Amino acid sequence: MSRANGLILATLAMVTLASGQTPYAQAKPGFPGAAKLRLQRNLVHSLALADTLVVTYLDGILPSGLLKYQGQQTSQWTSANKALTFAEENFHRKGGYYHLGPNDCSTFVCDFLSQFSTTISRRFTTDTLFSPAFMNNRGFVQVGDITRNLEEFDVLVYRYFDGDFQSQGGHCGIVVWKDGQLCIEHNSSSNKGLVCTPIEEFYRSVATRRDLRGPNVFRWAGARE
């Protein structure tokens, strides 16, 4: 078995184990056909994302076995730094903890976006932030390659179905540079507030979501001052 195939199989096994499910076997008796199709589509999307990540690992691996992510740091972008600081301060002003709606992941991202667009005057959910058309109208264009072509201050959004396919959910965050690597800063209910997660770890958790849509990554298209 080649090194590449071995890593791919290991990653796919990780995705299956982390999700705690066998994607086809979890369809309950009498499950609507559409839900079964969602399960199938999610399996294909998750495996494709995992496969893409493995390719990144192979290309970016260091002799020590540590991953070198191929993103970019743009910390000299003053207005973006100020926008991120504004969002962080608002998080603490609103209590410093995760609160669905008043102080959740999309509230944090919208506070950041509000410093670039006057039309972000309220909280939009991930369902809206996921839309390329909506983000484009706010000056943010969609990024193509989500494993290589990332820059600090990009906005990341994804959508998914919950465990019983009864409702949709989503999550979002901002790409930041922390401790020499690219991370996602996001307001997370499981972490009870703001946390910076290394991008590879974040992508691995994303790949386990059911009926995954995205992640979509958006970047400011205007002048950087």
Quick structural overview:
With 225 residues, the protein is of the alpha+beta class. Helix content is 39%, strand content 19%.
Describe this structure in words.
It is a single chain. The protein has two domains: 3-60; 78-220. The radius of gyration is 18 Å and the shape is globular. Residues 1-48 and 50-68 have low confidence and may be disordered. Helix 1 packs across helix 2 and helix 2 (33-60) packs antiparallel against helix 7. The chain contains seven helices and six strands. The protein has helices at residues 3-19, 33-60, 78-93, 105-113, 126-129, 132-137, 199-206, and strands at residues 140-142, 155-161, 168-178, 181-188, 193-198, 213-220.
What features would you highlight for this structure?
6-stranded antiparallel beta sheet, alpha+beta, 39% helix, 225 residues, globular, 2 domains, disordered N terminus
Alpha carbon gap, first and last residue: 50 Å
Average of pLDDT: 75
Number of domains: 2
Runs in which pLDDT lies below 50 for 5 or more consecutive residues are: 1-48, 50-68
**Spatial strand order of the main sheet:** 1-6-2-3-4-5
Q: Which descriptor suits the 3D outline?
A: globular
Radius of gyration based on Cα positions: 18 Å
Helix content: 25-40%
Beta fraction of the residues?
Answer: 15-25%
Class by SSE composition: alpha+beta
Task: Give the H and E element order.
Answer: HHHHHHEEEEEHE
Q: Main sheet?
A: 6 strands, antiparallel
The DSSP helix count reads: 7
Q: Can you count the beta strands?
A: 6
